[in-house]
Amino acid sequence: MNIEKILGRNFGIFDSDFNRLCDKLSDEISGKNFLVIGGAGSIGSAVSIEIFKHKPGKLHVVDINENNLTELVRDIRSSLGYIDGDFSTYAIDCGSQQFKKFINEKGPYNYVLNLSALKHVRSEKDPFTLTRMIDVNIINIINSLELFDQDELIKYFSVSTDKATNPINMMGASKRIMELVLLDSNYNFNISSARFANVAFSDGSLLHGFTQRILKKQPISAPRDVRRYFITPKESAQLCLISTIFGNNKDIFFPRLNENIKLTSFIEILEKYLATIGYEIFECSSEDEARSKFSSLITHNKWPCYFFKSDTTGEKDFEEFFTENETLDMNKFQNLGIIKNQLNYNQDQLTHFENSIYNLKTEKSWNKSDIVSLFHQMISDFGHKELDKYLDDKM
What is the pLDDT of residues 333-383, one digit of tens each? Predict the structure, then answer.
């Protein structure tokens, strides 16, 4: 699949910056020891492949998804082959005792890239998954920072999201808190991050859902009023590596908006995607109609689709990568901006947040409103609105 073509372009957004830095990138990666946490997802796999190309001394990839780790190994062996360094994958949880033992035995590392995240807004619908989101997006990162050899580690990178900017959902707020933690930390090694646009066709995304519906010969559903910024998995890897290797301490990178990266609707992308396989959209008035007419429509090269107005909890009307209160460097790179300022942060608030989450889990008694209240205490401008409607209630 030519993702760039489906997105309406024939070039990589960050190619000019990445190609200019490629030799320096190779010099820095070659022979160095890398750990990629959450490295079996779409972004993590793309990052791991890019690192592998530059012949690291050690590339260890950790993820809880053993099937995706297996595919990553097969992908690399089938396309790139082998390197003199140690390339190994490990199906372990970065919040586990096994991970601590792993770091002690397999380290030290020069670069750690933490790409683990619960990234779906739908994951905040219940108090059980929401608590795990806090563990993955915040607590595990806080705990992992203490595990690495501060004399050997050069940079710790942890991925953020555009939804951390003026957050209105719990996922974005959890990544905003992660940023606050990283920016206030004081270690011998440097720390950087990146706020992402949507990664097109990444695992679990709506665009990936298009692919799954086509493979399974099922109707497609999408919001008609939502527009998003999209980058490719390869571009996400470039963004991560530029931040990791070339970012200064506490830098947060983001894509610069210009004529090359603009808001696009899901319907626009779907129309181009279906055209590549010889179909066109047939808009249905309901989910039931889309399901019932599927067999008759596809014989005429029409794909039944149902489009709806977005009305679920946590959906933001627009996307943004920075606020008016943040200090920006827009000159260092052609297609990347950098947030330079330290965000307002209160250590007592974070300690209270951590202790409260720990106490709720220890007591084994909490609800979503308890957690939402804690997020409001941590983020003064948190714009969360509970609508009691979630994407899992739609096709």
Answer: 999 999 997 666 677 888 888 888 888 888 888 888 888 888 888 888 887
Rounded Cα distance, 271 and 121, in Å:
25
Of residues 181, 231, 214, the one with CA closest to residue 351: 181
Q: How far apart are CA 316 and CA 170, in angstroms?
A: 12
How far is residue 176's CA from residue 162's CA, in Å, rounded to a whole number?
A: 10
Provide, rounded to the nearest whole percent, the portion of the chain with pLDDT above 90.
Answer: 64
Quote the CA–CA distance of 130 and 45 in Å, as a whole number: 25
Q: Which residues partner with 258 through β-bridges?
A: 261
Spatial CA neighbour of 67 closest among 45, 85, 50, 96: 45
22 pLDDT more than 90: yes
**Structure confidence by residue, pLDDT tens digits, 254-267:** 998 877 677 889 99
Does the model's pTM come out above 0.90? Answer: yes
Of 139-143, 158-162, 261-265, which range is least confident? 261-265
Other residues' Cβ atoms within 10 Å of the Cβ of residue 198: 21
Contact yes or no for 375/170 (Cβ under 8 A) = yes
Strands of the sheet with 220-223, listed across from one edge: 220-223, 302-308, 280-284
* Positive or negative: CA dihedral 25, 31, 33, 37: positive
Structure tokens at 116: 């683990």
| Cβ proximity of 296 and 253 under 8 Å | no
Number of C-alpha atoms within 13 angstroms, CB side, residue 1?
Answer: 18
Measured in residues, the chain has a length of 395
Residue from 161, 187, 143, 212 nearest 316 by CA: 161
- Rounded distance between C-alpha atoms, residue 16 and residue 10, angstroms: 14
Mean pLDDT for 50-58 is: 98
Element (H, E) at 5: helix 3-6
* Confidence at 8, pLDDT banded by 50, 70, 90: confident
């950087």: which residue's tokens?
A: 192
